[in-house]
Amino acid sequence: MGSLFLNSPTLATNKLAKLSGKFQWCFLRRKKMSSSSIVYCQGGGKAIRSSGFSSVLTERSSSTLVGDDHAAAVIDAGSLVLSPNGNKGQSEISIKDFDSYGGTTSSSLVEIQEGIGIVKFLGGKGFFITGATGFLAKVLIEKILRTMPDVGKIYVLIKAKNMEAAMARLKSEIINAELFKCLQQTYGKSYQTFMLSKLVPVVGNVCESNLGLEEDLANLIANEIDVIVNSAANTTFDERYDVAIDINTRGPCHLMSFAKKCQKLKLFLQVSTAYVNGQRQGRIMEKPFCIGDCIARESFGDFVSENTPRFPPTLDVENEMKLALNSKETFQENDLAQKMKELGLQRARKFGWQDTYVFTKAMGEMMIDSLRGDIPVVIIRPSVIESTCREPFPGWMEGNRMMDPIILYYGKGQLTGFLVDPNGVLDVVPADMVVNATLAAIARHGMVQKSGINVYQIASSVVNPLAFEDLAKLLYEHYNSTPYMDSKGSPIHVPSMKLFKSMEDFSDHLWRDVIQRNGLAELASSDRKLSLKHEFICRKSVEQAKYLANIYEPYTFYGGRFDNSNTQRLIESMSENEKKKFGFDVESIDWRDYITNVHIPGLRRHVLKGRGMCS
Ligand SMILES: NC(=O)c1ccc[n+]([C@@H]2O[C@H](COP(=O)([O-])OP(=O)(O)OC[C@H]3O[C@@H](n4cnc5c(N)ncnc54)[C@H](OP(=O)(O)O)[C@@H]3O)[C@@H](O)[C@H]2O)c1
After folding, report:
1. What is the pLDDT of residues 276-326, one digit of tens each?
2. Where does the record place the Thioester reductase (TE) domain (predicted)?
3. 357 an active-site residue?
4. Structural domains of the chain ordered from first start
């Protein structure tokens, strides 16, 4: 653990200074556990009919690496970004000391003893949640229902062609998900009845005006809900510009219009991402976006090159929305999708963001700020969300996301190195911590109901950085002690992971490796050429690994570090009991324990479904 801080003296000092404030959410003494060994449990409805109809299907980028496990090789490109984030080595990045950005979380001693009153606030409250079939909102719903069973109705907006289809999705993707096994154990035979008494599926789509809801239905919901949580998003890094803008920028506008109809609304919570900070460098504060903010303007003049325009660009969000829509008319049908993808990336980079996903999410934040009026708003900005670290059980994960394809390919011996700055930092946070922070922020600001906007970055890169070279060692440790089994049941032994700072070196390594693995080394060392078939197989494998490296580059060479002062103040305002039940102290994560005993076993169990494990 100590070695994690060797590369970041500033951060190490920061951590030491904070040691006295530690509390229960701690892994330091936890023994190795299996993902199924610990369960923390505490603890007949109607669907609403709407003629709202959605046929919007989102495209997802995917890629496969050559290997025997194609099912596992599909990459959810969610949260991946495309462009390199500058060429600075991580060791050169200075973490400037800024004053933290405002926020309204300072607390008196009496308040701290009493805490925020999370459970008290949420009891009986009505929710409207979007993105509930997705990874994060599911963890949120599970936590609410497990810890606050007296919560009011939770309306979940689901894309479906009719109510029956929405109900079917609610059951198969949420109620029957393994994530909810604690609640299933708690309620036994009455589990379905309990769940359906709380969860109300609503057919709709954030891209449509009025969310695709009929007026009567919209009014009914508007009268009942206290909190809106918008977790719906398109997380594909290079999505078509029109598609991404529709969901990530226009979606929040539609939700904000709906929020204005809600008589007793106490809070609007937007789930954003820490990477809305685009190509900002150094320590990045939890500062809200205002309409027209433009990262390229902030750094204008910092990086002057021949490609630097003479005048800083001006971002007009309304104009971008029109552009995305109107551009559709200008492209030919046969290359429309590709052109719209290129347009998104081009616009993002022009204004200082690395890809379409984070750019359109940032514009979503801007629109929320400009439309919110008196509505209290919280913006949650997690970095990369990975498997749960503790609740409802350690290691729950859905999909093969972000760093996970690399972890899995490495374990299977298919990828022995990667393009990454060894001293760089991977900013990861466990899903349950994100959810706990979300609930604490909802209660804190929902209770006060003060008009304003509060931003919380749930991130580890400043308070508890995980260096890539340390991550590589942890992966090696894990697979050395618990290797994958090949198709014959023999353990796959992996070498320690090699880290390359240049694409050229990485590419050379890939060629050597693939030739070796395919038993072609002798052939390649003689003057004889590889057969066309061999060359095709090797080239495909190399190209796919390079593609992966390219899309990860903005992360593996990321120049920003996410400050989380507001989030820490939120923790400070919690009672000891709340810290135990709703902890999100990212600083206390023991990465060795999380990566080797929680996250990778979770991936192997929930994503690979146990394939390649000892029987
Ligand atoms: N995962 C991460 O690492 C990460 C990191 C930082 C921030 N975030 C943010 O966290 C939030 C949740 O992410 P996630 O990982 O849970 O995403 P996810 O698994 O991809 O889920 C996205 C959800 O949004 C819904 N959705 C998409 N388009 C919609 C539309 N037009 N109308 C209504 N619903 C729509 C999806 O519904 P369908 O099932 O019908 O497609 C799904 O329920 C997002 O806002 C994301 O930006 C995620």
Report:
1. 999 999 999 999 999 999 999 997 765 555 666 667 899 999 999 999 999
2. 129-438
3. yes
4. 118-383+427-462+563-584 (3.40.50.720)
Residue 538 has pLDDT above 90, yes or no: no
Question: Catalytic: which of 138, 143, 159, 361?
Answer: 361
How many Å apart are CA 50 and CA 71, to the nearest integer?
A: 36
247, 206 contact by CB (below 8 A) = yes
235 Cα–ligand 1 center, Å: 7
Which residue's CA is the closest to the ligand 1 atom numbered 7? 273
* Residue 356 pLDDT class (50, 70, 90 cuts): very high
Catalytic residue among 155, 241, 357, 456: 357
The alpha carbon of 354 and the centre of ligand 1 are apart by a number of angstroms equal to 19
pLDDT of residue 302: 59
Which one is predicted more confidently, 24 or 161? Answer: 161
* pLDDT, tens only, 525-535: 666 666 677 77
The set of protein residues with a Cβ atom below 6 angstroms from ligand 1 is 56, 58, 78-79, 130-137, 157, 159, 205-207, 231-235, 247, 271, 273, 361, 382, 384-385, 401-402
Cα(184) to ligand 1 centroid in Å equals 25
Q: Whose CA is nearest to atom 13 of ligand 1?
A: 136
361 is catalytic: yes
Q: What is the mean pLDDT of residues 85-94?
A: 39
As a whole number of angstroms, the distance between CA 355 and CA 346 comes to 8
Atom from ligand 1 closest to the CA of residue 398: 19
Is 0.90 surpassed by the pTM of this model?
no
- Which percentage of the chain shows pLDDT scores above 70? 77
Q: In this structure, what is the dihedral angle of CA atoms 545, 547, 553, 556, given to the nearest 10 degrees?
A: -20
The 8-class DSSP code of residue 156 comes to: E
3-state secondary structure of 255: helix
Segment holding 322, helix H or strand E: helix 317-330
Alpha-carbon separation of residue 371 from 317, 364, 374, 377, 596 (angstroms): 13, 11, 9, 11, 44
